[in-house]
Input
Amino acid sequence: MTATGTSVEALAEAYGTPFYRYDLREVDAAHERLTRALPGPHTLYYSLKANPHPRIAERLHARGCRAEVTSEAELETALAAGCPPAHCMVGGPGKTTALLDHALAHGVRDFSAESDGDLARIGAAAARTGTTARCLLRVNPDRTSTQAALTMAGRSSQFGTDAAAARAEPGRYTQVPNVQLTGLHLYMGTGLDTTDALLAQFETALSTAAVLSDLGIPLERLNLGGGFGSPYARVGTPSDFPGLRPRLTALLDGYTPGWNEGLPEIVFESGRYLSAPCGTLICSVVDTKTSNGTTYVVLDAGINQLGGTARARHPPAPIEAHPLTPSPTTLTECRLVGPLCSPLDTWHEALPLQLPAPGDLFTVPNTGAYGLTAALLGFLSHRPAAEICTDGNTVVSATRLQLQRVPLTPP
Output
């Protein structure tokens, strides 16, 4: 399909605001940067939680990515994008019986298990289908990076089995009916945007895996996770992680000799890095006002379209929207707010801007990850922003998610 143009103005005229524009060429560029930075051979999974848009999943599958999914809908998206079941892995701390049965029924056999209870549930589901599930045991190591934007290990966590527990009773995880334990999964934090920060995390993962392997836990596959940082909702360029490839190669040679021949198979996963740079959110100014000395810019998008999870951090991640056409007038510190009936609907407390007028277009860059589906879509029931995928000068997809109630009948 095509449109009158792929410029912001043309798309706003054709589809209205707010909308996300995803540039698939940026997906290609991000994939190339990341694979160039990582040692080979490796297997790379795209984490659909970052952005489950079918065109993005399709593009990354075409470039060789496998799919890491955490729900029935994400799995269906991955399969529809052409990813075969053998290249899908189901993860997450809350895998329900319904999800496990759905995945196994569709031919998926690879899982990341968070605990002995998770392994038992996966095994029970596999038994119901008369098969065996291949599992990685996700491990919560004794320490983690202090540089992660979000830390998921190295302390009490819902993610993974404590390394101490795995060391104490390794047989508890290797003798589960209908489960073949094939290796380990260590993912400790996200938002790591320097080579040194990534290497510190990977060395912790490798040293933990080496100890557990010596205790009898199989190590045919080793998922080192990722955490590759990328700018979020602000101007910036992702790092190409200079020096990561040779330095990580040296670590792999030291801890897992034979990795470059596939034993163990080295696995990485990424969502944010692969998809964030492709996205821009475009919205419009609804109103400007001054209250007790504070200038407010009210936009037609807020935390219902972007930033629901990011604003839940402590401190909240600020979101920077900038006028499409800057004015030469004096900058004013503005509070960016959305259309919701809540003071929590604030993107930025004091962003210097040229004072806009109603109808002016604003853009929020680097929003291809943790954008629309990580927002508070259902609050106040505004319709979700449109999602427009472009490839060069062509609009290849223009869609809108819908929230609707459907009748249910008891089984």
In short: The first strand starts at residue 19 and ends at 23. The mean pLDDT is 92.
